[in-house]
Amino acid sequence: MKDSAFAQYAADAIKIVQLTDTHLFAEPSRTFDGVDTEVSLQRVIDLACENHWPPDLVLATGDLAHEPLVGAYTRLRSLFNGLAVPVYCIPGNHDDPTVMGEALPSPGVHLTGSARRGRWQFVFLNTVLRNADGGHLPASELQRLDKALWAEPDLYALICLHHPPVMIGSRWMDAIALDNPDEFFAVLDRHAQVKAVVWGHIHQEFAAERNGVHLFGSPSTCVQFRPRSDEYRADTAPAGYRWLVLKKDGTIETGILRLGPEGASAGGSTPRA
Ligand SMILES: [Fe+2]
Q: 88 CB contacts (<8 Å, ≥6 apart)?
């Protein structure tokens, strides 16, 4: 067995695997756009176990269920518990935050507003609008974010939400992004310790920077969406995950790893400071 790629980093760096848009069903063998989402998720987990394991925590950034039924969350709970590392979850537009809040949490699977590891604070936001694919941050979430950041000025911060707060250049997807990004960034601009924002929803890799804050979107563990497409199109890129290393000086390294055609690693890691 090869060494984990995380082994090269300092022991006090925070190592993370992001699994997003798992779109799990309540029943086995159901498919989303021809992909068995449970099989695909398991293959991506196996890939992470071969390359970036164990992380200090897993981020699961929404659309965890395809249809928000109790059975989908209980199956996911058991799968996540099997990882034996803490998993922090937020809802996406395919999730029902209430059902998810009742069926998913367990000692190793968390739905919480924030968390702390070493020199880093994590803030988890709920952008879900009832019966809508797009997202919104209500005043209560914006205030909670602001308060969490004021409370820990000496910790670097990484913010997680499902919907992207920036346009990614794909017309149909940009129409269902976060609808009040200016209010979100107004909060971030008051807190110099914010280093990164990480999201799901777009089922593709994305990286940008705004005022010194890294902005990262990530591939789904199942179906991929074609970048820069005006309308919905599945992409041929394999499923994958993002890894991140948060260092004690506030810098970040990250990259994407995808399945190969037979489930083997396809490489494609793109470190980014
Ligand atoms: Fe999704």
A: 57, 58, 59, 60, 110, 111, 112, 115, 122, 124, 160
Provide the 10 A C-beta neighbour count for residue 19: 26
Alpha-carbon distance of 179 to 188, in angstroms, equals: 16
For residue 221, the CA-to-ligand 1 centroid distance in Å is 9
Rounded to the nearest angstrom, the distance between the alpha carbon of 59 and the centre of ligand 1 is 15
Residues 61, 218 contacting (CB under 8 angstroms): yes
- Compute the distance from residue 63 Cα to the ligand 1 centre, in Å: 5
With DSSP H G I counted as helix, E B as strand and the rest as coil, what are the percentages for the chain, rounded to 5?
Answer: 25, 30, 50
Distance (Å) from CA 116 to ligand 1 centroid: 26
Digit-coded pLDDT (tens) for 138-183? 999 999 999 999 999 999 999 999 999 999 999 999 999 999 999 9
- Class (C level, CATH) for 13-258: alpha beta
Q: Is the pTM of this model over 0.90?
A: yes
Ligand 1: centre distance to CA 222 (Å): 9
Q: Which residues of the chain have pLDDT under 70?
A: 1, 262-273
Ligand 1 centre to CA of 154 (Å) is 34
Tell how far the Cα of 65 is from the centroid of ligand 1, in angstroms: 9
Question: Would you call 34 exposed, middle or buried from its count of C-beta atoms within 10 A (0-12, 13-18, 19+)?
Answer: exposed
Cα-based distances in Å from 121 to 55, 132, 222, 246: 16, 30, 29, 11
In the prediction, which pLDDT does 262 show? 54
Look up tokens 């991929």; give the residue: 224
Report whether 258 contacts 239 (CB < 8 A): yes
Spacing, Cα 119 to ligand 1 middle (Å): 31
Find where tokens 């890799």 sit.
205
